[in-house]
Specification:
Arylsulfatase, C-terminal domain, 2 domains, alpha/beta, single chain, four-stranded antiparallel sheet, 466 residues
Length: 466
């Protein structure tokens, strides 16, 4: 009897500890995935049953905005909760880059480690490839993956001579160069599953930034030739498989009900690659532009018992909001000694009645140029040049040409006119005036190279050797 009482007490304590344990988090982040590239957002020619399941068991976010339509900048926003201009990470860092994320920045995994979280990243980092910038120096316990984009190698279709061998890194050691990219999605998935199993008894943060479907496209033999859409569809099918493996591991490890899984992408599709590129769905343009085709991402959130199943959120939210939201759920706080641009969006994810976007305004930059601002349903494009396809796109891994297009100042209702096709400036002069004031606020804060404004509140990137 005494043994039974003792066992019952131990079991009770264990269950209580599990109930009191902060939630775990899984962030699955694709590369160049368009809004229309997965089943819940209208994809055709291939099935995404696991992402469909995520949508059925969780929430679709239809107005989830990346902070930049390019690789490194968007990832800086995810990890810091800031516009990339705030932390001076712009564009796509390459093997010749001498800068990366600053040591003084407090990244999401560092915040979560302060609450006892295990942390890992399996995939593309792209915030600096020198040792001082690597994930293991910025809060991640484990790292396996590529330090930058998978096309930055000697086999690049147009500029291979500009790139050294592509490193595959584990921890801080290059374990292989020019790795077999058909195995990347599988390798990342296997390590993600093992990490979940290894850390089922403690809170964890798992970040899986896939290299795919960034060109060049690669897929394992498990999915090669399996879809009607060709190689691109095969790649998405394998990403969907990866999601299924991660969800199964959460269930098998008994942590499914205490884990928030977020699926999204860094920016829209690289349209010049034609049949190797995805679809922006109903939105205008793609990667490399501030039109919604470049910024609006197909995003899903799932947490059984916490996020209403089959729900849809049409409010504006974005990657800058991930850090403050996960920090709060973990019982931590973002740093208070600096500006953090993101806001807690848990009321949206929880489906709380009447929950609204926490952003009165939102900024769209290309590098240091302020090209658009948004408030509510209104998006004001400021005069700027942008790239647009010049005729037919490329095919089978070869890019087609871009041309330089230009927009003058133009106002769009991006709720009624998702394609940003009808300028309503003349009918809404008061809205235009209000958004021009928002633009001035952005310029004073973060600067604007298009109007020669330096900005007062930017922080420097890290520099090699400093």
């Amino acid at each position: 009897m005494r043994l039974a009482i003792l066992l019952a007490a131990v079991l009770s304590t264990t269950l209580l500890a599990a109930a009191d344990r902060p939630p775990s988090f899984v962030v699955i982040y694709c590369d160049d995935l368009g809004y229309g590239d997965i089943g819940p957002f209208g994809a055709r020619g291939y099935a995404t049953p696991n992402l469909d399941r995520m949508a059925a068991e969780g929430m679709k976010l239809t107005d989830f905005q990346t902070a930049a339509a390019v690789c490194s900048a968007s990832r800086a926003a995810l990890m810091t909760g800031c516009y990339p201009q705030r932390v001076s990470i712009l564009g796509a860092l390459g093997p010749k880059s001498q800068n990366g994320i600053n040591d003084s920045e407090v990244l999401l995994p560092e915040i979560l480690k302060s609450r006892g979280y295990a942390t890992a990243i399996f995939g593309k980092w792209h915030l600096g490839h020198h040792p001082q910038f690597l994930p293991t120096r910025h809060g991640f316990d484990r790292y396996f993956g590529l330090p930058y984009s998978n096309d930055m190698w000697p086999n690049h279709p147009t500029n291979g001579q500009d790139y050294p061998p592509l490193p595959l890194i584990e921890g801080e050691k290059t374990i292989e160069t020019n790795p077999d990219q058909t195995q990347l999605t599988t390798w990342y998935t296997e390590r993600a599953v093992q990490f979940i199993q290894d850390n089922k008894d403690r809170p964890f943060f798992l970040y899986v930034p896939h290299n795919m479907p960034h060109v060049p496209l690669f897929v394992s033999s498990k999915f090669k030739g399996k879809t009607e859409r060709g190689l691109f569809g095969d790649v998405i099918a394998e990403i969907d498989w990866s999601v299924g493996q991660i969800l199964a591991a959460l269930a098998a490890s008994g942590v499914d009900d205490n884990t928030l899984v977020l699926f999204s992408s860094d920016n829209g599709p690289w349209l010049s690659y034609g049949n190797h590129a995805g679809s922006a769905g109903p939105f205008r343009e793609g990667k490399g532009t501030v039109w919604d085709g470049g910024h609006r991402e197909p995003t899903l959130a799932r947490w059984p018992g916490k996020i209403p199943p089959g729900s849809v959120c049409n409010e504006l939210a974005g990657t800058i909001d991930v850090l403050p939201t996960l920090a709060k759920l973990a019982g931590a706080e973002p740093p208070k000694d600096r500006i953090i641009d993101g806001r807690d969006i848990w009321p949206l994810l929880a489906g709380q009645p009447g929950a609204k976007t926490p952003h009165e305004s939102y900024y769209y930059y290309w590098n240091l140029g302020l090209e658009a601002v948004r408030s509510g349903q209104w998006k004001l494009h400021l005069p700027h040049e942008y790239r647009s396809l010049a005729g037919a796109p490329g095919k089978d891994g070869k890019p087609g040409p871009y041309k330089t297009a230009k927009t003058e100042q133009a106002l769009y209702n991006v709720v009624a006119d998702v394609g940003e096709t009808k300028d309503v400036s003349a009918e809404q002069p008061e809205i235009v005036a209000r958004l021009l004031k928002v633009a001035e606020t952005a310029r004073a804060d973060l600067g604007d190279s298009l109007t020669n404004r330096p900005g007062a509140n930017r922080r420097p990137a890290g520099k090699l050797g400093q």
